[in-house]
Task: structure prediction
Amino acid sequence: MDRRKNYLLPALLGKKLLPAADSQFAIIAPDLGLIFLFIALASCTPFLVGFWYGEIDLLLPMASAPAGFGILGIWLASIPKAEGEAHLPVALSAVALIWLAAALIGALPYTFGLGIPYTDSVFEAMSGWTGTGFSLLPSVDDTARMILFWRSLTQWMGGLGIVAFTVALAGRSGLTRFQLYRSEGRSETFMPNVVATAAEMWRIYLVLTALGIGLVLLSGIPLWDAVNIVMTAISTGGFAVHSTGILYYESPLLEMLVVPVMIAGAMPFKLYFLLYYRRSFGFFRDPQAILLFVLILAGCAVITFDLVTISALAPAEALRQGIFMTVSGITCTGFQNANPRDWYGATVMVLTALMLIGGSAGSTAGGIKLGRVILALDMLRWWLRRLHAGWRTITPLRHEGRQILEHLPEYEVSKSMLVVVLFTLVVAVATLLLLHLAPQAGFDSADVVFEVVSAISNVGISTGFVSPGMSPGAKWLFIIVMWVGRLEIVPVIALVLGASRRL
Result:
C-alpha cells in the first residue's frame, strides 16, 4: 500500500475510505472523535449565559455549534480503531483539520444568531479559536451576551490549544494523542505523560483566570466585563464586549491591571508549575522570562520616547500608551488603547517587531516565540566560538542549560529557523496578494504589512484595514493566515501536501 495516500481524513476530502484495519485514518479517527465530543460538551457553556440573561431566542442558533461538533465527533468515534502508529504527517494534517473544522462549525452561531454572512462568521470564529482578536461583527455593543461569551470562550479554550484541552479531559494517554499534542505546537514535558502535563497546564490556567478576574475587579468594572476581559487576556486573545474595547471604560487603572494578566499568559507555564509544586521562583532565571521583560522594558522606552518627541503626546499619555501597547503587542493579546495608524512609521515598526517575536514557548502567546530567538542567539555565540577555536575542535552548543554536541546544533537550529523563514515568507506573500487583489483607499503597504503580521502572530491589533468592508477574498486570506500562524505553518503544509498527493 502507498502510505502517502493516507495523510488526510478521507471523508472530509470526499474520498473513499481504505479498509479500517489498514488505514491511517482508522488509527486516528476515534481520538479525533473524542476531541470533537469534548468540544461539543464545552460548547454548551454559553447556554448558562443565555438562561441567566433571558436570551431564550438565541438558544437554538447557539445549539448549532455543539450539535455540529457532536455529530462529527460521534461519527469519527464510531469508526473501529485500527492497531498501529499514526504517521507524523497524519497527525500534523489531523491537527490542521481539527482547527479548520473548529472554525467552520464554530461560525454557525454567528450566522444563525446574528444573520451575518458565513464568510464573516468563519473569520470571527477563526479569530476566536486562534486567539487573534480581529472582529467583523457589525456592532459588538448590540450583540447578545450569549454570543459574546461564545467569542470569549473560543479564545479561552484555544489559548492553550484545542488538543491540549481535550487530552486533559480524556484522562488517559496514548501514542496517537501524544502525536496530536506535539503537532499542535506543544512541547511541555514537566509531567510524566502528555495527559498529566495537559491537565496540569489547565489547572494552572484556571487558577490564573480566577486570580485575574479578582485583580481586574479592583478597577470597579462589572463582573460580566471582568470575566470576559480576563478570559481573553490570559489567553492572549483580545476580544472585548464593547466596540471600542478597553477604551470604552476610560480607565487607566483598568489598563494597568490588565497588563500583568497579559504578561501572565505569555510566560512559560512550566514556571508556574515549578513555583507551586517545588516552591522554586524561577521567573528571573528562565531565559524566556528574562527576554520577555527585557523586550517589554525596551519596547516601552522606545515607543514612549517616540510618542513624546515625534507624536507630541503628553508624557503621561505617552507612557500609558507605551506600556499598554508594548505589552499587548509582544504578548500577542491585541487589546488597544491607541490606534497605531496615528503613530509615526518608526514607532509602528517597533510594535510590528514585538508582535512578530511574540511570547514564550509553552504559553498562550503567538508569534515566532522567544525560545527561537534565544536559540538563534545561542547559535550565533556557538559559531563565534567555533571560529575562534577552529573547525576541527568539537565545540558544544549550550542551550537551556544543556550541551548539544556534534551535528545536532545544525539540526536543532534548522528546525527553529524553518518556522522563522516560513513566517517571513507567509507575511511577504500575503502582503503582496492583499496589495494587488484587495487594495483599500487610505491604506499603504506599511499598514498592510502590520495587519498581516498581526494576523499571523495571532495578535489582533489593527490600524483599521481589517473591517467588514473587506472583499471576501481578503477575508479568506486573513482566515488562512490566522490559521497557519496559530499552528506554526508546518501542520498546514502537511495537510496541503497530503491533499495534493490524493488529487
About this structure: The mean pLDDT is 85. Residues 1-186+491-503 form one domain. The chain is about 65% helix and 0% strand.
